[in-house]
């Protein structure tokens, strides 16, 4: 029972590490040239020197922009607990200027225990924000504005950005604006009056290199030898991890995965899947765990759906693909049935079903989201007349038919002809 408990404890430790950004990014931000160090220096300088600043964090999704920012803000809140106030907005929720400024006012009121007025106008909230910036500046307190999906705030009239950056021109205000965006040209979206007030400081985030990815993996997967886990078990576990890293099969799997998606976010998903496959009987990771994780992540749900389709449903999908290749503008159940009959008459197939059975199969494919109606406005129309389209590509359908053990040879011929 004791051995079983320490194996479970090791599994829980590995899972908790993967879900802990602070632990994950530790090997990446130890360097003074890391984005963590640069961002922390810029923000701490603004706080201690009482100056305004605006910074853009740019990079593809999953590259660690938000995670690193959260780490920096968390560290600064510990170092300067009474000198920072954090306001968070998301372009997905607050891209409307009125909505955004109202949310700023709400969070400021909550932070400083003031009464928030839902009926306040844009101008009222704008004046309130300017007044709070001055008050916080006099109290040597910096307001940090975090604008996630920054490019969405740069649409429309950009009144929020102008109001905020214009208020920061005053020597009495004290604020830092941090924009997060996956658009590299986010600052070019700003109007001239807004751009002239922006500091144009940018930090570029890129997916980790192959060496960085391996460092993260080794950092996460190595158990501490000086913990409550048995020393011999931790040493043996770490030795097996090193053996896996040196294994040719693992290197091939890991390289294939990084070629598919090398972002930190997806790397952690891959590691979590591998750890979850660990055999608790032995308590050790194996190459097979990583191969299983790779197969799980790379699996194609549509191909799995095809494996569970009936022969009739496969006929309907192939007939729809034939109509698509013929560039038939209208593809509904009736036209599919005509194509199905043509196939039967041309090849004298034994698989021919009644119309009402075909209609049930057609509806089943819609429920499985392998096909869909193209016009949602036709709910009152008969299913037979509503135009429909395939939600599966030719290559996926081809692969699905090959993987289908009892697939009629005629369907392969029909697909080969269209290919």
Radius of gyration: 29 Å
Question: Within the largest sheet, what's the order of strands?
Answer: 2-3-4-1-5
Shape: flat
Q: How much β-strand is present in the residues?
A: 5-15%
The string of secondary-structure elements, in order, is HHHHEHEHHHEHHEHEHHHHHHHHHEEHH
> Helix share of residues?
55-70%
Structural class: alpha/beta
Question: What is the number of E strands?
Answer: 7
Alpha-carbon distance between the termini? 59 Å
Poorly predicted ranges: none
What is the mean pLDDT? 86
CATH topology of the largest domain: Rossmann fold
**Reported CATH architecture of the largest domain:** 3-Layer(aba) Sandwich
Task: Describe this entry's structure for a reader.
Belongs to the ORC4 family. One of its GO terms (biological process) is DNA replication initiation. By secondary structure, the protein is α/β, with parallel strands linked by helices. Helix 1 (2-18) runs antiparallel to helix 15 (264-276), helix 17 crosses helix 21 (394-403) and helix 18 (311-325) runs parallel beside helix 22. The chain is 58% helix and 9% strand. It has helices at 2-18, 21-24, 26-29, 35-48, 65-79, 91-94, 97-111, 122-138, 150-153, 159-167, 192-195, 210-221, 231-246, 248-260, 264-276, 287-298, 301-307, 311-325, 333-347, 355-367, 394-403, 409-418, and strands at residues 53-58, 84-90, 142-148, 175-181, 201-204, 371-373, 388-390. The strands form two sheets. The chain has a five-stranded parallel β-sheet, with helices on both faces. A two-stranded antiparallel ribbon has the order 6-7. The protein is built from 22 helices and seven strands. It folds into three domains: 2-17 and 209-299, no CATH class; 31-204, Rossmann fold; 303-418, Arc Repressor Mutant, subunit A (Orthogonal Bundle). The radius of gyration is 29 Å and the shape is flat.
């Amino acid at each position: 029972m004791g051995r079983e408990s320490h194996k479970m404890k090791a599994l829980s430790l590995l899972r908790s590490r993967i879900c802990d950004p602070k632990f994950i990014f530790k090997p990446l931000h130890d360097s003074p040239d890391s984005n963590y160090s640069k961002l922390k220096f810029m923000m701490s300088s603004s706080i201690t020197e009482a100056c305004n600043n605006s910074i853009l964090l740019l990079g593809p999704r999953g590259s660690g922009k938000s995670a690193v920012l959260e780490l920096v803000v968390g560290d600064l809140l510990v170092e300067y607990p009474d000198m920072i106030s954090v306001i968070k907005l998301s372009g997905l929720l607050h891209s409307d200027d009125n909505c955004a400024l109202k949310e700023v006012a709400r969070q400021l009121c909550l932070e400083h225990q003031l009464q928030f007025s839902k009926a306040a106008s844009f101008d009222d909230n704008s004046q309130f924000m300017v007044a709070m910036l001055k008050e916080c500046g006099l109290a040597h307190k910096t307001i940090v504005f975090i604008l996630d999906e920054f490019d969405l705030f740069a649409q429309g009239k950009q009144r929020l950005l102008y109001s905020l950056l214009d208020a920061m021109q005053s020597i009495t205000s004290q604020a830092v604006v941090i924009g997060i965006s996956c658009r590299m040209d986010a600052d070019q979206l700003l109007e001239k009056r807004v751009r002239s007030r922006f500091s144009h400081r940018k930090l570029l985030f890129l997916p980790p290199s192959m060496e960085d990815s391996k460092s993260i993996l080794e950092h996460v997967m190595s158990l501490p030898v000086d913990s409550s886990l048995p020393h011999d078990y931790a040493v043996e576990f770490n030795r097996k991890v090193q053996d896996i890293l040196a294994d040719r099969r693992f290197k091939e799997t890991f390289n294939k995965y990084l070629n598919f998606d090398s972002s930190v976010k997806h790397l952690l998903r891959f590691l979590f899947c591998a750890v979850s496959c660990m055999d608790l009987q032995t308590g050790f990771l194996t190459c097979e765990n990583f191969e299983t994780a790779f197969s799980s992540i790379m699996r194609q749900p549509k191909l799995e759906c095809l494996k569970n389709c009936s022969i009739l449903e496969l006929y309907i999908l192939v007939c729809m693909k034939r109509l698509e290749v013929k560039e038939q503008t209208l593809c509904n159940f009736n036209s599919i049935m005509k194509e199905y009959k043509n196939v039967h008459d041309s090849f004298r197939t034994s698989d021919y079903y009644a119309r009402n059975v075909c209609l049930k199969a057609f509806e089943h494919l819609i429920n499985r989201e392998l096909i869909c109606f193209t016009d949602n406005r036709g709910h009152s129309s008969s299913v037979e007349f509503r135009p429909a389209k395939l939600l599966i590509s030719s290559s996926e359908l081809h692969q699905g038919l090959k993987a289908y053990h009892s697939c009629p040879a005629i369907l392969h011929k029909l697909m080969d002809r269209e290919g």
